[in-house]
Design a protein that fits this description.
Length: about 425
């Protein structure tokens, strides 16, 4: 069985490399020639721990390759994993134009039976559209099945998530397609859940929206904690000890970012609207999330009074640790607000600075990117912790204090122990704690 992966972005690259590592014969293709050239040389265009060595290993083994030629990749493959992006449109819905054009290309190159697998996150009922498009545009009598196999990997732990899944969801409408996908995921056979396609598509949106809901819920509790003597870290711990709730995804902070949660929550709201179901609950989840930056800015103002002309160090730009991804990162809105207020910003992130530079170029002395966190905090009136990188958790705090103009930390991710930092002489603000 030859597997083709169309779109070698985040999801596609991890899928291609990991499927090859499971022993399959995989070819990846992408309209972005640079990504394919790099991948062919064993260079990964994204920072994802463990991915590049696995890419190189499987290129060497010979069961992984990359091609510029979409048509040839389709023709050579028995199974096609569609991993093109499904960006958010203005009304919140997912833009399906790349999935549609990919479906047309598949139709035009349907030289033998193929299983077309939706890996990208798509609205429920997309398979029906893919099926219709391929049927409309295919030339001969080529057979095909559409299937859904949503991806649950998290950036930063993507390889481990792929290799040790909690579940493998396979949405199919024929036994033939089911057999193909079950064979591909034979290594994880105890984890497979076979459903119809609508169910599989919905599982992905329902899961991401539920996790987003957990985060907004704890952020709301954090606001309550700030008005009382309660500590949100312990509230989350106490809640999480109940196995029915679970402790994960109850970290209060600056809210969720990334390429999935914000987009998927809004897409599900739109899906509900289109189907006549009011998902007001999720509108509230989105509203709470968007309001996190304003409540954080209020804390910065509480500490600095006037932000104009203050030197502010921002530690962490990525939407979460262990990634260079800044898509929907809280840092973007925060930096914009601070710029509008007239701050002098000194930015540092272990991995995401190049990406941030492309949207917020260096503009000294207003915007300066620094080599390390200590350069960032030099002469600063306040330090803002925006992403909880381990590097910040273990930073030399006495050194930070000596370097700063005013030892003020506004911690958006509860990285430090309040008592410890205050004992060192810092003025310290965090989330949902006194
Ligand atoms: C994205 C979304 O974030 C995710 O929610 C969805 O499930 C899949 O799409 P990601 O892999 O992070 O996932 O997107 P991105 O990194 O933008 O990769 C998409 C890739 O598809 C890009 O490399 C792009 O060049 C490629 N592409 C796009 C094609 O090869 N052909 C197309 O027609 C369109
Ligand atoms: C998410 C899903 O977890 C994954 O299953 C899906 O395939 C893609 O979307 P990802 O976006 O990579 O993965 O990151 P995740 O670890 O889920 O974090 C998303 C956002 O939520 C980050 O901004 C993170 O900082 C935030 N978050 C997460 C919190 O604010 N609190 C938490 O307790 C957990």
């Amino acid at each position: 069985m030859k597997i083709g992966v169309i779109g070698t972005g985040y999801v596609g690259m991890v899928t291609a490399v990991c499927l090859a590592d499971l022993g399959h014969d995989v070819i990846g293709t992408d309209i972005d020639k640079e990504k394919i050239d790099k991948a062919s040389q064993g260079i990964c265009h994204i920072y994802e721990p463990g991915l590049e060595p696995l890419l190189q290993k499987n290129l060497e083994k010979g069961n992984l390759s990359f091609s510029h030629d979409l048509e040839e990749t389709i023709r050579a493959s028995d199974v096609l994993f569609v991993c093109v992006n499904t960006p958010q449109r203005e009304d919140g819905s997912a833009d399906m134009c790349y999935v549609e054009s990919t479906s047309r290309s598949i139709a035009e190159n349907l030289n033998k039976y193929k299983v077309v697998v939706e890996k990208s996150t798509v609205p429920v009922k997309t398979s029906m559209w893919i099926k219709r498009t391929i049927s409309l545009y295919k030339k001969g009598g080529g057979e095909f099945d559409v299937a859904s196999n949503p991806e649950f990997l998290r950036e930063g732990t993507a390889v481990a998530d792929f290799m040790h899944p909690d579940r493998v969801i396979i949405g199919v409408e024929t036994k033939r397609a089911e057999d193909v996908l079950v064979k591909i995921y034979d290594t994880f056979k105890d984890k497979i859940l076979v459903t119809n396609i609508d169910t599989a598509e919905l599982i992905k949106h329902a899961s991401n929206s539920f996790l987003a809901l957990k985060i907004s819920y704890i952020n709301l509790m954090a606001e309550l904690c700030e008005k009382t003597d309660a500590d949100v870290e312990l509230v989350a711990k106490g809640m999480g000890l109940d196995e029915r709730i679970g402790e994960r995804f109850l970290r209060a902070g600056l809210g969720y970012g990334g390429s999935c949660f914000p987009k998927d929550v809004r897409a599900l709201i739109k899906i509900g609207e289109d189907l006549g179901v009011d998902l007001a609950l999720l509108k509230e989840v989105d509203r709470i999330n968007t309001s996190r930056i304003q409540s954080y800015i209020a804390k910065v103002k509480k500490a600095l009074w006037i932000i104009k002309d203050k030197k502010v160090a921002v530690l962490g730009l990525a939407f979460k640790p262990e990634t260079d991804d800044i898509r929907n990162a809280p840092s973007i809105a925060l930096i914009e607000e601070l710029q509008n207020e007239g701050a002098f910003l000194r930015l540092y992130d272990p991995e995401a600075m190049d990406n941030m530079r492309s949207i917020t170029p260096e503009d000294p002395p207003k915007i300066v990117y620094t080599e390390n966190p200590y350069d960032a905090v030099k002469d600063a009136n306040a330090v803002l912790i925006v992403t909880e990188w381990e590097e910040f958790r273990f930073i030399d705090l006495p050194k930070v204090k000596d370097l700063m103009a005013n030892p003020i930390i506004i911690d958006g991710r509860n990285v430090f122990d309040p008592e410890e930092v205050r004992n060192l002489g810092f003025e310290y603000y965090s989330v949902g704690r006194q």
